[in-house]
Design brief:
With 171 residues, the chain is mostly helical. It has five helices and two strands.
Length: 171
Amino acid sequence: TARASMYCGRTSWLKSAVRPVPVTMTKASVSAARSDHGPAPVRSRSRPDRPTQTASAALTLALVMVTGTGLTALFNHEVRPQYMLALAVCGVIAAFFARARAFDIYGLSAAALAVDTLLICGIGRLVFEHTKFNDFGGFLMLGLTAAGILAATVSTVLKLARSRDALEAAA
């Protein structure tokens, strides 16, 4: 096959920091790049009512920021009101995605994980606030409580997903 050699990294401001890297292209890829129509568009297999990857990434980043703010407020000397606000915001987002019209398994799972993280860290602060960090019973209680909270969350999310699937199958 005929190969065309091209070099990348020749911008003026990166000239001193980046060495040119040889890129080898086959004849078919060069002809596809030069054609009038370009490569065939990739069709989306997702349904139009489901959120895109961009919306999911934006939701993830928003939940990480809200959860991080809440955890920062929780682990101050005294608990700041941002912790309760973060818990409320994540709860509202979870309730929104649990509705039948806006149901999204990814959004619901991400928001539920954020609520679980905030709850478990809050319980951990309550347990260890007045003890020295060598209390085995406190660790045991925190671990069992975390396992219970996570099990209840997973059970609820699965139940909602199954009921949504049943509604879609009936429609």
